[in-house]
Design brief:
The protein folds into 2 domains: 8-218, 2-enoyl-CoA Hydratase, Chain A, domain 1 (Alpha-Beta Complex), CATH 3.90.226; 222-268, Orthogonal Bundle (Lyase 2-enoyl-coa Hydratase, Chain  A, domain 2). Helix content is 48%, strand content 19%. The longest helix is centred in the N-terminal third of the chain and has 16 residues, at 45-60. It is built from 11 helices and 14 strands. 38% of the residues are buried. α4 (129-136) packs across α5 (163-171). The radius of gyration is 19 Å and the shape is globular.
């Protein structure tokens, strides 16, 4: 991944980089935070390119052991840039949808299959693909100012960005159907009640709370976390026998890591293990 601009360091030792005009990357120890910072949080082609490439880079970076995705001001992510979309439709109504396979599919795939924990810190409005990005993350911490909007049919569209997969798994098929067809905004408190979010916090506390959780996960057994995510995703579409077989293979992977050996040694010595993510 090509990273533009020079890094800057805060007093804490954090490293921040601009990877596109609308995306900032911050590194604090083993935690990487991607912040969508463009006007209105809309996704134009340049932003989608940068987000896709950044996520793939972070997935492959062994020094990164937890990832946070967040937004700025009152918007987490507003979804597709409709001005750009309108121009693309006018030029080639079919070709305009190449962005699904070029951008939205790989972005959601990277979030959902990241071999390390991914947290969505939802600071404000998450609409369309923005909501789908949050639902593809492992955990969602929402500010009290946050809201989700999943009303694709309200603009004459079906679902994309994985919503047909993530939403029913989070809230059940019946509720997912209602949320999409009725096109009602989902408040932060309702998101927690429905199971779309794990925790609600005042906006002023969102960054600190997310940082604490991300640091906690980054200090954990990263390979075991990745294997756990893979096992859960696999079981959603397979029967018991296949799930057991997948579990056995993944357990061998996790069970032969240095982290597992360290955990066994720590247990016998009656102390807490120090995981190194390998």
């Amino acid at each position: 991944m090509i990273i533009a601009g020079n890094p800057t360091r805060a007093k804490t030792g954090d490293v921040r980089r601009t990877i596109s005009p609308m995306i900032q990357l911050a590194r604090a120890g083993a935690v990487a935070t991607l912040t969508l910072s463009g006007p209105y949080g809309a996704l134009d082609t340049a932003t989608k390119d940068a987000l896709r490439d950044a996520l793939n880079h972070l997935a492959e970076d062994p020094a990164v052991r937890a990832v946070v995705l967040t937004g700025t001001d009152t918007t987490f992510c507003a979804g597709q840039d409709l001005r750009e979309h309108a121009a693309a439709l006018a030029a080639d109504a079919t070709g305009a949808w190449r962005t699904l396979r070029d951008h939205y599919v790989p972005i959601v795939t990277a979030l959902a299959t990241m071999p390390k924990p991914v947290i969505a810190a939802v600071n404000g409005v998450a609409a369309g693909a923005g909501a789908a990005f949050a639902f593809a993350c492992d955990l969602r911490i929402v500010a009290d100012t946050a809201s989700f909007h999943v009303a694709f049919p309200a603009v004459g569209l079906s679902l994309d960005s994985g919503l047909s997969w993530t939403l029913p798994r989070l809230v059940g098929l019946g509720k997912a159907t209602e949320l999409v067809l009725r096109a009602q905004p989902i408040t932060a408190s309702d998101a927690v009640k429905l199971g779309l979010a794990h925790e609600i916090t005042p906006l002023a506390n969102l960054a600190a709370r997310t940082s604490t959780l991300a640091s906690e996960l980054a200090a954990g057994p990263t390979i075991a976390f990745g294997a756990t995510k893979q096992a859960l995703a696999y079981s959603a579409g397979h029967g018991l026998a296949d799930a057991l077989d997948m579990e056995a293979g993944l357990q061998v992977l996790a069970g032969t890591t240095a982290d597992h050996a360290a955990a066994v040694e720590a247990f016998l010595a009656k102390r807490r293990p120090d995981f190194e993510g390998r």
